[in-house]
């Protein structure tokens, strides 16, 4: 499933799932857990949800980067991004791109759990 982040649609199909209230709420819960950041807010369901989440995650990632390599590395490891995904996102859009990859990866985790529970 990790390969989906590198498909040519740039995660557009995945992002559309954030239009579902349950999926969005579970994705925010997953982000809070993986980033250890309880302050992440649940955005309004709709077209802007992905970008709103990305902006919040971008601020968290920037803070972790300022805290040092160890704190930054913990985020990447907890989210479970590959080195290639991190490098690709950073090369394309810097921390903003990495934040988008983090949101998509957490969304993937949620959808996987839902599928295996027979909910998706």
Summarize model confidence as the mean pLDDT: 90
End-to-end C-alpha gap: 15 Å
Q: How many beta-strand elements?
A: 0
- Portion in beta strands: under 5%
Broad shape: globular
Number of helical stretches of at least 4 residues: 5
What structural category arises from helix and sheet content? mainly alpha
Mind summarizing the main beta sheet? none
Write the H/E string, N to C: HHHHH
Number of domains: 1
Helix content: over 70%
Low-pLDDT windows of residues: 1-8
User: C-alpha Rg, in Å?
Assistant: 13 Å
Describe this structure in a few short sentences:
This protein has 120 residues and is mainly α. Helix content is 70%, strand content 0%.
Kindly describe this structure.
With 120 residues, this protein is mainly alpha-helical. The chain has one domain. It contains five helices and no strands. The protein has helices spanning 12-16, 21-35, 49-67, 69-79, 83-116. Helix 2 (21-35) packs across helix 5 (83-116) and helix 3 crosses helix 5. It is globular. It starts with 11 loop residues before the first helix and ends with a helix. The model is unreliable at 1-8 (pLDDT under 50).
